[in-house]
Amino acid sequence: MISKSFSALLAAITLALSVHAQAAVWSQCGGTLTSFNKGWTGETTCAAGSVCTVLSSSYSQCVPGTGASSTPSATSSSPAPSASSTCAPNSPPSSAGKLRFAGVNISGFDFGCGTDGTCNASGAWPPLTQYYGLDGAGQMKHFVEDDGFNVFRLPVGWQFLTNGVATGDIDEDNFTEYDALVQACLDTGASCIVDVHNYARFNGKIIGQGGPANDAFAALWSSIAAKYADNDKIIFGIMNEPHDVPDINLWAESVQAAVTAIRNAGATSQLILLPGNNWTSAETFVSNGSADALNKVTNPDGSITGLIFDVHKYLDFDNSGTNAECTTNNIDNAWAPLAQWLRCNGRQAFNTETGGGNVASCEQFMCEQVAFQKANSDVFLGYVGWAAGNFYNGYVLSEVPTQNADGTWTDQPLVAQCLAPNANA
Ligand SMILES: *[C@@H]1O[C@H](CO)[C@@H](O)[C@H](O)[C@H]1NC(C)=O
Ligand SMILES: *[C@@H]1O[C@H](CO)[C@@H](O)[C@H](O)[C@H]1NC(C)=O
Ligand SMILES: *[C@@H]1O[C@H](CO)[C@@H](O)[C@H](O)[C@H]1NC(C)=O
Ligand SMILES: *[C@@H]1O[C@H](CO)[C@@H](O)[C@H](O)[C@H]1NC(C)=O
Ligand SMILES: CC(=O)N[C@H]1CO[C@H](CO)[C@@H](O)[C@@H]1O
Description:
The protein is an alpha/beta fold. 30% of the residues lie in helices and 18% in strands. The strands form 5 sheets. The protein has an 8-stranded parallel beta barrel, surrounded by 4 helices. It has a 3-stranded antiparallel sheet with strand order 2-5-4. The chain has a two-stranded parallel ribbon with strand order 1-3. Helix 5 (214-228) runs parallel beside helix 6 and helix 10 (360-375) runs parallel beside helix 11. The longest helix has 17 residues, at 248-264. One 2-acetamido-2-deoxy-beta-D-glucopyranose binds next to strand 15. Residues 21-63 form the CBM1 domain. Residues 70-91 are annotated as: Disordered. It catalyses: Endohydrolysis of (1->4)-beta-D-glucosidic linkages in cellulose, lichenin and cereal beta-D-glucans. This is cellulase.
């Protein structure tokens, strides 16, 4: 990536120092000659109230505070914050800096699922070679061993699991195929998110609001949870991207029904991801009312242990995840205000879908987003990139690695530059 000559870099540094420019809060700032930020030639100092903080060997960012000890630690993730009654501007504790999870979506079983909650029977395509798909198992092994990822999200349609009926009656033949992907994920040692990819719907109708009753949805989750109750690497993703749900409080009741069912099926300790409205937008999670509604969901014992908010955010201009170019790092509009709310309310969120094209704008903005999430690891568990699995070569957000003749793998540029935990190691 670095094409400039050393003398050009030196000239740039000299220039930057001589004009004393200051970078805004949350933007990238300069490194030193010995660990130079990916050829960074911009500001080397930060605006008042923030400090240029080394977030990796090749990336620094202006983080609010005095910077006393905000360098990332290489140890385990920080404990959840405790709730406070006021919501004054806040900043991450010094223990923040390392995300608990980084991963990739392994798509295929969700193919054929539309945003109206229909899932065409013929659409599902297992991303496994034994079922004539791509080598999702090999991809995951590579992502763990070569890149340092430790979580995969495995989308599947409700219809696939039950062979078309809106109940909790699992079709064992279909489940065997899906479980093969889950087991391939578990075999890597990673955590595995079981993601029901139905947009809060079944065949066009909203769960608990005209569609399947909450009891039916709870029965589905009871069946799934029973299969994985004794495996603490399983994470239950209750629902992919609810949208246009008319009553967010009724939706919270549907989510509560699923949580209760999962816990009562014996999966008492695993993480459960709670999805809000508006495509689980991180940006409108608080303003659209999802935060307050889902904040009331509890475990059967009244605790909130393991209940994590599920949020998505893409980096293109319309947050759709369909454009190659990225236009934002989402920090000012989404991640900073969300971190504030989470810290104030003693909660945590997991960004289970994010992505961009394999282009320079995304490499810049995605690296900034990941760095911000790392710096706020007390409230953000991590991120999962969209997507690898069965996507075709050339898919705009492809994170599908290519396998070389010698068996090694080559990552897509965005994975190699920003998403892989080892990217900056
Ligand atoms: C399902 O299949 C029908 C017929 O092939 C098609 O018109 C429709 O677009 C498909 N829906 C999805 C979500 O793929
Ligand atoms: C269940 O699996 C069978 C066998 O692969 C498949 O034909 C069927 O389409 C699946 N059902 C759904 C609803 O996807
Ligand atoms: C949904 O979220 C997007 C940004 O993620 C925002 O632009 C839009 O206004 C939101 N819609 C609603 C209804 O909140
Ligand atoms: C949230 O978004 C929905 C549309 O998805 C909208 O109808 C509703 O008014 C919004 N609620 C709030 C509190 O903004
Ligand atoms: C942003 C993005 O790629 N979204 C995809 C989510 O997954 C469905 C299939 O499950 C695709 O149709 C979407 O394009």
